[in-house]
Amino acid sequence: MSGEPHAFERGALTWVLGIEDTCVYPIDPGRPALDEHVLTGHSEHWRDDLTLLKDLGASAVRYGVSWPLVHVSPEEFDWTVLDEVVGYAVDELGLTIVADLVHYGTPPWLERSFADAGYPSAIEAFSSACAARYLGRISHFTPLNEPVTTASFCGLRGVWPPALTGWSGWVAVGVPIALGLVRSTLAIRAVNPDAVIVHVEASTLIDTGDHELASHARLLRDIGWLPTDLMTGAVDRDHPMHAWLLEHGARAEDLDWLVTNAVEPDVIGVNYYPDLTPRHLEVVDGHMMQVSYDRWTPGLREALKGFADRYHLPLAVTETSIEGPDKIREKWLRDSVAEVNALREEGVDIRGYTWWPLFDFVDWSWAAGGANVEEFAVVKSHADGTTSVGLAPSLGDPTDGKTAFLRRMGVVRLEEQPDGSLTREETSAARAFRQLAAGEER
After folding, report:
1. Which of the two ends of the chain, N or C, has the fewest CB atoms closer than 10 A to its terminal CB?
2. Which stretch of DSSP H or E encloses residue 108?
3. pTM here?
């Protein structure tokens, strides 16, 4: 290899910042795209953003490669923009890029998106081409961000293409995703045997105090492990979810292929948000709902220990942050880093910490006309001091501007200007990140 920068080495903690990169371009051209690089202005200010990221002390960046835009047709790639970004990030700034190959969206020419018969071969071809083009510059790859979340949005709840619903929809998306994970990993390693595969998955922390919901809570927890179990060949005919998959439309030959061709990632990336990841399963107004609540660092510990105990592979925190005022973000940063360090001292092999995102981002409801698209309910406070539980309300009308849609989760704040542009302003959490990454004391 050519001396490219590396991350997630044994015994060290790599400091990473991520740039929100959800990239969903609809199959129906009449529907709006959800491209965070465009919405946040990163597509215009990427040099400044990467320079800021480096200045804050990160040595690596989780970075989306915009598959729907680069892979313009089955046999054609347009690397123009990515070539410039990679050259600047790696050659000039010395950053390690953890290339996020798929972040919730596929090229529009895949007519059924993740459920398209051509999806596994398409992502295999893209992964191989990307690894070959940037050989010596990019060696860290995430084949697909958050399989379990992708299957929920695209297969269970019909929010993003292919807009399937129900558990059969989940399986129609989830199994091809697993096939793609394996084929991508094999393709990347064929090009670069030294590649580092960082498999990134959302934590699933579900509990319930209602005994009648206990079996469904258990199902949701089992589904949370399922994509990684499929990728690593654990879903043989004795696996407790094998029959469930067949019942909901999976092909036995696909499940058998996954067992035969199983791969292990080099690092498992764990995504955890203290106030969003933990969920109570409850009946609210006659409907079963996941209600988010805050478990702070005990939830982070449970999530990391769960992945460590199940898969016995190196870990990295690949997404964490909290929404709120600067001081809350700073407190979560310090507390979560302290928890990671405590786990490392206890022998848990954690090799990276990622604050996601570097700067605030535009809520996903932007592309849904302001309507809530999340799967969980929230506790809402009212002026009279009472609380209630329900889905988050509409954030407003996108034609009124982005301010109402900005999710305040970055260590850098976005502020909308009269001309619609978004400026970047460091928060106290940014200063704390710089301090912690440099190894300085509080």
Report:
1. C
2. none
3. 0.96
Q: Is 366 left (phi over 0), alpha (psi -120 to 50) or beta?
A: alpha
Rounded Cα distance between 113 and 417, Å, is 36
pLDDT confidence bin for 27, thresholds 50/70/90: confident
Q: How far apart are CA 221 and CA 216, in angstroms?
A: 9
> How many CA atoms, within 13 angstroms, populate the side-chain half-sphere of residue 305?
12
Most distant CA atoms of the chain, gap in Å: 63
* CA 296 centroid distance within chain: 19
Instruction: Give the Cα-Cα-Cα angle 15, 18, 23 (nearest 5 degrees).
Output: 160
Cis peptide before 108, with omega less than 30 degrees from 0?
A: no
- SS3 at position 196: strand
Average pLDDT over residues 383-406: 81
At 372, which amino acid appears? N
| Rounded-to-5 percentages of helix, strand, coil across the chain | 40, 20, 40
Q: Among 258-272, 288-302, 363-377, 378-392, name the one with the lowest average pLDDT.
A: 378-392
Question: Bridge-partner residues for 17, per DSSP?
Answer: 61, 355
Under DSSP, the state recorded for 411 is S
Q: Which of 199, 200, 216 lies closest to 208 in space, CA to CA?
A: 216
Q: What is the mean pLDDT of the chain?
A: 95
What is the rounded distance in angstroms from the CA atom of residue 375 to the CA atom of residue 389?
A: 13
3-state SS, residue 44: helix
